[in-house]
Design a protein that fits this description.
Length: 194
C-alpha cells in the first residue's frame, strides 16, 4: 500500500510522537515537519491563530482561465440570478466549463463567500450557455480581488457553538423551490457551511 498526504494534529506532543513512531514502524513514513501546504491548502500559524487559504490554487485558476490580468470586482455575483436561466443554444465547450466549475468547487474549501454562486453555476454543467460563462468570469474577477482570502481560526477563541440559517422562499425561477443556507461557528471560527 502506498499512501501520502497524512496530517497528524493534537495537543499532546508525546502522543503525536508515539503515533508517528507506530506509523513509521508499519509503513516507513517521512515527517515533513510543521504543516505549511497540504493538497492545495496553505496553512500559516502564528501566536494569534491559524490561517488557511488557497492563494496559489486561486492564482493557478486565474492563470489557466486567462483571467490573471482581468479587472477585479468586489462581489462574487451580480444581484439576481435570472440571467442563469437563459434558453439560448449552448455555444461553448462543456468540458472547459465543467473543469472550471470543478476548480471553483474545490476553492470553496476555504472560500465560503463563493459557495452560493458556484453551487448555482454547477447546476448548468450539462449544457452551459453564454450567461453561465459570463457569471463564471465575474466570479473569477472577484477571486482576483482577494486570492489570499481564507479561513482564520483564532487561538484565543471560546468553544461556544453557534449556528445560523437563512431561507429564501420559492426563489428558483425554474422550479420555484426554496433556497436555504447555513453556517456553523465554533467560537468565532467558521467550521461548516452550505
Amino acid at each position: 500500500m502506498y499512501a501520502d498526504d497524512v496530517i497528524l494534529i493534537g495537543n499532546s506532543p508525546f502522543e503525536i510522537t508515539s503515533i508517528k513512531q507506530l506509523l513509521h514502524h508499519k509503513f516507513c513514513i517521512k515527517d515533513l515537519g510543521k504543516l505549511k501546504y497540504f493538497l492545495g491548502l496553505e496553512v500559516s500559524r502564528t501566536s494569534k491563530g491559524i490561517h488557511i487559504c488557497q492563494q496559489k490554487y486561486a492564482l493557478d485558476i486565474l492563470s489557466e482561465s486567462g483571467m490573471l490580468a482581468s479587472k477585479p470586482c468586489s462581489t462574487p455575483m451580480i444581484k439576481g440570478n435570472k440571467l442563469l436561466y437563459d434558453d439560448t443554444p449552448p455555444p461553448y465547450d462543456q468540458t472547459a466549463y465543467r473543469r472550471l466549475i470543478g476548480h471553483l468547487l474545490y476553492l470553496t474549501t476555504t472560500r465560503p463567500d463563493i459557495s452560493f454562486v458556484v453551487q448555482d453555476l454547477s447546476q448548468f454543467m450539462q449544457s452551459p450557455r453564454q450567461p453561465h460563462f459570463d457569471v463564471t468570469t465575474y466570479v473569477l474577477r472577484y477571486i482576483k480581488c482577494c486570492p489570499a482570502q481564507g479561513l482564520f481560526f483564532p487561538a484565543d477563541s471560546d468553544l461556544q457553538l453557534k449556528a445560523f440559517s437563512d431561507l429564501d422562499w420559492a426563489t428558483c425561477p425554474t422550479t420555484r423551490q426554496s433556497i436555504t443556507g447555513y453556517c456553523i461557528f465554533l467560537g468565532s471560527s467558521l467550521i461548516s457551511w452550505r
